[in-house]
Write a structure and sequence with these properties.
EC number: 2.7.4.3
Strand content: 5-15%
Subunit structure: Monomer.
Number of strands: 8
CATH class: Alpha Beta
Catalytic activity: AMP + ATP = 2 ADP
Family: Belongs to the adenylate kinase family.
CATH architecture: 3-Layer(aba) Sandwich
Shape: globular
Distance between the termini: 12 Å
Oligomer: single chain
Number of helices: 9
Main location: cytoplasm
CATH superfamily: P-loop containing nucleotide triphosphate hydrolases
Helix content: 40-55%
């Protein structure tokens, strides 16, 4: 299957993408991983992206599109892939359509993870990160540390990252509504969108997604 995964920040796209890709035996292609891989390998596209990032500028669509098209051309993606974070806007969605058309491929589904805005704010603004190791994360409601403000793993101080502040979360939601949400209507016009609730346990959301994709393919 060839799937695009969309949803607001805090919807759990990365987590669900990893589980779904494993269950469907297709590669999980995330924008973040593409940038890191191209930059670390020193590819021409990676060097271009790094120049923009160092200047504090957004990476142009053509660079992101180039990275995504290159990755979709790898042998492991021949039988399908799950795109996470791409396309992020209409220009990228149109470029993806062009790539698929040129390669005589089709998209099977666009999986839309739906989460109420209030829940997004609660999920992200409630996160707390260990100053010693950013991989150690907790939540004031969903994953409380044994001792408030102290990492269970190493005893480091837990803090709220600037990216996780409520103000920043609301800014990110505005960007999502203005730039990414329009691609949902774009794909609805093609009959590709499958919307599911991303509320509940991770395993429940994964099963919900698998059921929806199976029904779409039937």
């Amino acid at each position: 299957m060839r799937i695009v995964l969309v949803g607001p920040p805090g919807a759990g796209k990365g987590t669900q993408a990893a589980y779904l890709a494993e269950k469907l035996s297709i590669p999980h292609i995330s924008t973040g991983d593409l940038f890191r891989a191209n930059i670390s390998q020193g590819t021409p596209l990676g060097k271009q992206a790094q120049e923009y990032m160092r200047a504090g500028q957004l990476v142009p669509d053509e660079v992101t599109i180039g990275m995504a098209e290159d990755r979709m051309g790898h042998a492991d993606a021949a039988s399908g892939f799950l795109l996470d974070g791409f396309p992020r806007n209409l220009a990228q969605a149109e470029a993806l359509d062009g790539y698929l058309r040129d390669n005589e491929l089709t998209l099977d589904a666009v999986l839309d993870l739906e989460v109420p805005e209030a829940e997004v704010v609660k999920r992200i603004a409630g996160r707390r990160t260990c100053r010693n190791d950013s991989a150690h994360t907790f939540h004031v409601e969903y994953k409380k540390p044994k001792v408030e403000g102290v990492c269970d793993v190493c005893g480091g101080e837990l803090y709220q990252r600037e990216d996780d502040s409520e103000e920043t979360v609301r800014d990110r939601l505005e960007v999502y509504h203005s730039q990414t949400e329009p691609i949902i209507d774009y794909y609805k016009a093609q009959g590709l969108v499958v919307t599911i609730s991303a509320l509940g346990k991770v395993s429940e959301v994964t099963q919900r997604a698998m059921d929806a994709l199976a029904a779409k393919a039937a």
